[in-house]
Amino acid sequence: MDRQWWKESVVYQIYPRSFMDSNGDGIGDLQGIISRLDYLKTLGVDVVWLSPVYESPNDDNGYDISNYQAIMDEFGTIEDWEELLQGLHERGMKLIMDLVVNHSSDEHQWFVESRKSKDNPYRDYYIWRPGKDGREPNNWGSFFSGSAWEYDKNTDEYFLHLFSRKQPDLNWENPKVRQEVYDMMTWWLDKGIDGFRMDVINLISKEQQLLDAEGPEGQYQFGGKSFVNGPRIHEFLQEMNREVLSKYDVMTVGETVEVTPEDAALFVGKDRGELNMVFQFELMGIDSGPSGKWDVTPWTLADFKRVVSKWQTALQGNGWNSLYLNNHDQPRMVSRFGNDSSPELRNVSGKMLATLLHTLQGTPYIYQGEELGMTNVRFESIEDYKDIEILNMHKEYTAAGRDEKTIMESIYSKGRDNARTPMQWNSGPQAGFTTGTPWLPINPNYKEINADQAVADPNSIFHYYKRLIELRKQHDIIVYGDYQILREEDDQIYAYLRSLGEEKLLVVLNFFEAPAEFVLPDSIHFSGQELLISNYEIPAEHSLRHMNLRPYEARVYKLQ
Ligand code: TEU
Ligand code: CA
What we know:
By secondary structure, the protein is α/β, with parallel strands linked by helices. 26% of the residues lie in helices and 18% in strands.
């Protein structure tokens, strides 16, 4: 068993803008986080992943960085950051920072220089190309609508931006860029951080001809073939590991869009010398239709189980999974995969989903508010939304003549602001998040759904998460056990075994509101059983051979 602290950890993601405001400007900040560290300690998480807090014009809420070694004014000072790091370490928690180096902000000094002239020493820090026939250099579309190229009149060339036009892609072919990144990483690591989450890290290597993507004339296309897991990606990551990461006891998780388990094994394989784990997007795509995330289609448990099982088995013994259903880019999981139609169903379905995430093989990631069962939001007007991805989509679809109601329904289902409404701390004004006006409106359900209520209620989702995290510490099998799905064809129940030596862990999850019967395969023998956790009261005398499961019922047994 290859024991590693990052395999045994539970990570909690903080989106600083929406976590806790300490100075009444309606924007979360570092001192706000510091004031909530005991809450995190009570929950029992081991690592905090802090979304970007660096200087940024906030075109993409901090994922557009203008100074990698300075703290955004709105969030506080580097002294506040040092205090946060110390506060976490004193409580036995670790801190990983967000590394956003596929692109910088266009207000970064490097880009300010680069756009000055074609022979500026920083020109090749970015990807500049002349236009073609009076148009962009190729037909690639941006993740945030429109072209992935922006014309810059001053030097009569275009620069590449896979995301917003204020997020120019860095040119990783340039060894000076790579060295700048490694020096910056070393600066943060020498301050004592415990690792990095790496933003779209598998996009940094582009094939150099920058060829058009296939697709009908006159439409922007996803150019993924030219930059997803590009030609030099493993060379770059192995160099980053050799030059920087290998010198520290750190945890790394790469955000890798479009990866398959086979690709992932090349990033996280034990002897690859690259990353510890990656965030895959396949599971996040099971409710997207052919034209992408806004083409909302119903997901099926068959698809859900197929994807999770594939990843569990593909990385078994050679790599490691990250386990998540929520983050700052995804809608709230209890609304998307659970049931938020009533407090009772939200409670049991939130606990069922948590049981899945904390009993699979891999490191679980909790996104702020997930432990409270926070839900999606429905703002009446597009004016209330702030996310650039939402606003650009709304503009593009409106211009294309789509009707407002359909557009808003897509935003209600999949918009990133679902995850970015401020943390709901209590039932007081502005949910205790701020004494001012929040940068994004609070979800109106904060009076029922908030941390004070959850911590006070032993039957809350919060205390269920706390118990799951404790179990992880008590039972190696939860971390290191092999995974084997049971009753794969069942379209309502997700059941699986984890095995480690003679021990077995049986997990049985009813994914829906309808009651369901589960019959344990005869092939599973055991002499003793211990119920470790369930989201319902289970009568002391009950059979494991045949279970009648209530709505969203989850059960975890240790079998001897
Ligand atoms: O996200 C990368 C990414 O692919 C997301 O844009 C995702 O595909 C999309 O939002 C799904 O709705 C990372 C960051 O997590 C995201 O917040 C940034 O906007 C993006 O990179 C650019 O830095
Ligand atoms: Ca503030």
